[in-house]
Every structure is written in C-alpha cells, then in structure tokens.
C-alpha cells in the first residue's frame, strides 16, 4: 500500500541507531539512513509531535538454536544513541531488551497517554528491531507507516523480505521525503 496519510497525532520511532550497532556492515550506507532518520526526527520535533528514540541493551532470555551474538558485556558506550539524532529533553527514550520496542516496555502506555494513533518507524535492523516494533505497534492498534529509506539491515534477504512481504501487511510504506511532504501538507 502506498503512503496515503498521517494521523494528526503521529509519533516517530527510531529503532537502535546507537553506537554499538551503527558500525556494523549494513546493506545500505548507514550515513544515509542516519541522515534520513535525523531529518524525520527534526521535522517531527518542529511540529511538536512525539519522537521516540529506542536503544537495545540486551536480548530476551529465551533459549534459541542460534547462540547469542554477544556473550561478553557490551562496551560502556554500546547503548549510547548516536549524536546525529540530536536527542532532546522532551524525546521519549526507550531501552529494550527484546527485538521490538513495545514488548516489556511502557512505550504503548506513554504513546497512548499522548493520544498517539499512528507511528512512523525507522532504524535498524529492518528484519528484526524495525519489523518487530512495527508488528507490535500494529498489534496494539496503532496505524503504522514505515520509512523504507531510513532503515537497513546486515542481511539483504531479511531487509527485502520485510519491505516486500511483511510491511504492506502492517501498514503503509514510503520514503522519508514522502513522510515529510505529508507532514508539511498538514501545516498551515
């Protein structure tokens, strides 16, 4: 589905753009993804719409067939949000220990307290943190928009599968420029 509209009270959720992750080898140049996510955040702030900055500080405790990637403690600054996001005091910051930003956090409560009905999701990794956050938002009743040029993954097949097969079932997709155009069209 193509991007059609944004609700009056839409929040931006930027997933896992943090020091310990952005240095990984990604499918798309991470600098471009960061620039687009940062532009979205600035426009949302200018319009006094909520900006949610999410970092990950661990993983769910369940047993899996694949061993965890990190078996040693993270470096001290691993969870620090990247400075390009220009974190502001009124931003909502969520630290998660699962793939999605809603599971085991108070994000849903915080957004609903602000009467948010729609979320725009960007960040890394497309097939894990972004997709899980979008799925959880959809399951909690939020309208979902995915900024497909403001996300990337270390796995090309996971990125493409999410964009092609999963995201159209969860909401609408568009570029960061499309989203900013819709935001600008709402302002007098």
TrEMBL record:
Domain of life: Bacteria
Hydrolase is among the record's keywords: yes
Family matches, as Gene3D superfamilies: Isochorismatase-like
One Pfam family it belongs to: Isochorismatase
Keyword Glycosyltransferase: no
Keywords: Hydrolase
InterPro entries for the chain: Isochorismatase-like_dom (IPR000868), Isochorismatase-like_hydrls (IPR050272), Isochorismatase-like_sf (IPR036380)
Transmembrane parts of this sequence: none
Isochorismatase-like domain boundaries: 10-178
Record's protein name: Isochorismatase family protein
Taxonomic lineage: Bacteria, Pseudomonadati, Pseudomonadota, Alphaproteobacteria, Hyphomicrobiales
